[in-house]
Design a protein that fits this description.
6-stranded antiparallel beta sheet, alpha+beta, 14 helices, binds adenosine-5'-diphosphate, 449 residues, 6-stranded mixed beta sheet
Length: 449
C-alpha cells in the first residue's frame, strides 16, 4: 500500500495536533499518525497550564509582566543550561500562541503561577479544569472540522531519506500492514521517554525504581528514529522528577494546588521548604526527608477554586477532616506541631512575608477553612528535557548541526529549550509554540515542491 501527502505528523499530543492544524491552515494536505489507540499523548495529562508573558489575558487582569522576565526566570529555573536561541524564540512567540488557541476556540484566560515564576503567567481554562483534557479536546475539534486524517494504532517505523532529504515514512498499521507514505516533510512530535525506565536509568542510574507520571506511549521511540537518520541529541541526562506524585496510583498532583495556596508538610508536621521553588529543588528536599515523602496540605478555600482537587478526592487520594487536629490525627502526625505550622504559615500570609523559607508567590490566603485536606506525595519521573537537536525554526539538526531537509521536530522529543529543569507550564507553551511553527515550516517546504 502507498500514500502521498504534503506533511506527515508523527504523534497526536499537543505538538502534533497543533502542527497538523497549522500545516492544514497553510494549505497543506496532512496525515497524523499515532501509535497508541487514543489521541492526546502525554499532553492529555497536563494539569497546570500554559506560560506566556505579555498576553491579552494578563492585561485584562492588570498583571504586569515582560518577556524578558519570563526569559530570565525560565533560564534560572533551567539552571542556566537552556539553549538561548530556542528559549528566546519560545518566549517571543508565547503570546501569539495563546492567541492562536483563542482564535480556534481554546480559551486559556484564567491565570495562576507555578514554581520558579514570580508572576502569574500560567494560563489555563477559566473553569479551573486541568489544561490537558481541555486543550486536547479543543485541538481534536479543530482537527475534525478540517477533516484531517488520523491513523490510530499506527506507528512510524522508518523515516526514509534519499540524497540527504526526507522523501517519506514507513508505517506499520493496526492490521500489521506496512504502508509507505511519500512526503517532503515529516514532523516528529513523538514526546519524551519518561515511561521507558530502561532508557531513563541508562542516562540516570539514580532514578532506578522511581514511578512515572507519564502515559505508556512515552518511550522515546521518536528519538531513536531520528537518530537513525543522523539527528543529534542534547541533554539526554536531564530528566525531571516532579515533586508531588501520589505513589500508589502514579497520579500527579498539579502544581496549581500549591499555586492556589497549598503547603507541603513533613510526617513530623512541619513545613520544610519554599513550596513554590522549582521542581528539581522541591523534589530534592522531599527525597532528603527521613521518610522520603511529604503531604500536600490545603483547605476548602483552595479546593473550591481547583477542579483537579475534586478529581483527587473522587479518586480516593485525599485524606480530609473537619479540623486541622483531626487531619493530623488521621495522618498519624503530631497535631501540636501541625497546628503550630498552620498558625505560623497563616501569619506569613497575613504579612505576605515567609520568614522561614522565603516563599514569595502564592501566599494567597490563610489555610483556615474546613474541611482540611492532605495528599501523601513523593517525586516521580515526569519530563525528559533532553532530545533531538533543532534550530529555532524546528528543523532537525544532525550531529554536525546541519539541517536534515524535510525533518522537523517539536515538543518533548526536542532537547535544549528547558535546560536542566523545566518550569511548570512551559511544556504546554513549548508544544503550542513550536508545534504551530513546525506545521508552518513543513507546509511552506511542501509548497516549494
Ligand atoms: P508532546 O507533548 O511533545 O506533544 P505527547 O507525549 O503529548 O508529546 O505526544 C506524543 C505522541 O506521539 C504520543 O501520543 C505517542 O504515543 C506518539 N508516538 C510516539 N512514537 C510514535 C511513533 N513511532 N509512531 C507514531 N506515534 C508515536
Amino acid at each position: 500500500a502507498a500514500k502521498c501527502v504534503d506533511v506527515v505528523v508523527v504523534g497526536s499530543g499537543g505538538a502534533g495536533l497543533a502542527a497538523a492544524i497549522q500545516a492544514y491552515d497553510d494549505g497543506a494536505s496532512v496525515l497524523i499518525v499515532e501509535k497508541m489507540p487514543t489521541i492526546g499523548g502525554n499532553t492529555i495529562k497536563a494539569s497546570a497550564g500554559m506560560n506566556a508573558a505579555e498576553t491579552r489575558f494578563q492585561q485584562v487582569k492588570g498583571i504586569q509582566d515582560s518577556k524578558e522576565l519570563f526569559y530570565q526566570e525560565s533560564l534560572k529555573g533551567g539552571q542556566n543550561r537552556n539553549n538561548p536561541e530556542l528559549l528566546r524564540r519560545f518566549v517571543e512567540n508565547a503570546p501569539e500562541a495563546i492567541e492562536w488557541l483563542a482564535t480556534r476556540g481554546i480559551m486559556l484566560n484564567d491565570i495562576t503561577t507555578t514554581g520558579g515564576m514570580s508572576i502569574d503567567r500560567t494560563h489555563r481554562p477559566k473553569d479551573g479544569s486541568a489544561v490537558g483534557g481541555y486543550l486536547v479536546s479543543g485541538l481534536v475539534r479543530n482537527v475534525n472540522k478540517r477533516h484531517i486524517d488520523v491513523m490510530l494504532d499506527t506507528s512510524v517505523s522508518d523515516i526514509i531519506v534519499e540524497n540527504g532529504e526526507v522523501t517519506g515514512v514507513r508505517l506499520t498499521t493496526e492490521e500489521n500492514e506496512t504502508v509507505t507514505v511519500t512526503t517532503k516533510s515529516v514532523i516528529m512530535a513523538t514526546g519524551g521517554f519518561s515511561a521507558n525506565s530502561q532508557m531513563v536509568v541508562k542516562y540516570r542510574p539514580d532514578l532506578d525504581g522511581f514511578v512515572t507520571t507519564n502515559h505508556k506511549g512515552a518511550t522515546g521511540g521518536g528519538i531513536a528514529l531520528l537518530e537513525r537518520i543522523g539527528a543529534g541529541t542534547v541533554d539526554m541526562g536531564e530528566i525531571q522528577i516532579h515533586p508531588t506524585v501520589e505513589q500508589n496510583t502514579s497520579y500527579l498532583i498539579s502544581e496549581s494546588i500549591r499555586g492556589g495556596g497549598a503547603i507541603l508538610v513533613s510526617q513530623q508536621g512541619n513545613r520544610f521548604f519554599n513550596e513554590m521553588e522549582t521542581r528539581d529543588k522541591v523534589s530534592a528536599q522531599i527525597i532528603a526527608l527521613p521518610e522520603k515523602y511529604a503531604y500536600i496540605v490545603f483547605d476548602e478555600h483552595v479546593r473550591a477554586k481547583n477542579k483537579a482537587a475534586d478529581e483527587y478526592i473522587a479518586k480516593g487520594l485525599v485524606t480530609s477532616a473537619s479540623s486541622p487536629k483531626a487531619l493530623a490525627e488521621a495522618l498519624g502526625m503530631d497535631h501540636h506541631a501541625f497546628l503550630a505550622t498552620l498558625e505560623r504559615y497563616n501569619g506569613f500570609v497575613e504579612k505576605q512575608h515567609d520568614v522561614d523559607f522565603g516563599r514569595t508567590t502564592a501566599l494567597r490566603a490563610p489555610i483556615n477553612e474546613g474541611p482540611f485536606h492532605a495528599i501523601r506525595i513523593a517525586p516521580g519521573v515526569h519530563h525528559t528535557m533532553g532530545g533531538v537537536t533543532v534550530n529555532p525554526e524546528t528543523c532537525v539538526l544532525d550531529s554536525a548541526h546541519n539541517v536534515i531537509p524535510g525533518a522537523f521536530a517539536a515538543g518533548e522529543v526536542v532537547g535544549g529549550i528547558h535546560g536542566g529543569n523545566r518550569i511548570g507550564g512551559n511544556a504546554v507553551a513549548d508544544i503550542i509554540i513550536f508545534g504551530t511553527l513546525a506545521g508552518h515550516q513543513a507546509a511552506m517546504r511542501s509548497k516549494k515542491a
